[in-house]
Amino acid sequence: MNKYVYWLDQAAGLGNGARRRLIQAFGSPQGVYEAGERYLGMILEEKKKELLISSRRSWDLEGEYAKLEKSGSRIVSFQDEDYPQRLREIPDAPFCLYYKGGLPRQEVLSVAVVGARECSEYGEYVAVSLGRFLGEQGVQVISGMARGIDGISQRAAVQAGGSSFAILGCGVDICYPKANRELYGILEKRGGILSPYAPGTQPRPQLFPPRNRIVSGLADAVVVVEARQKSGTLITVDMALEQGRDVYAVPGRLTDRLSDGCNKLLREGAMVFLSPREFLAELRSSFPGKILEDRGGEDEKGERAVEKRGRAEEGREGSRGAKERKGEKKKTPEEGGGNRAGRRAGELSGETRRAGRGVSEGICRSGRELSEEEILRTLDLYPRGVEEICERLQGMGCALTDPADILPLLMKLVLSNRIKQVSPGWFSL
Question: Residue of 130, 178, 343, 388 with fewest CB within 10 Å of its CB?
Answer without folding.
Answer: 178
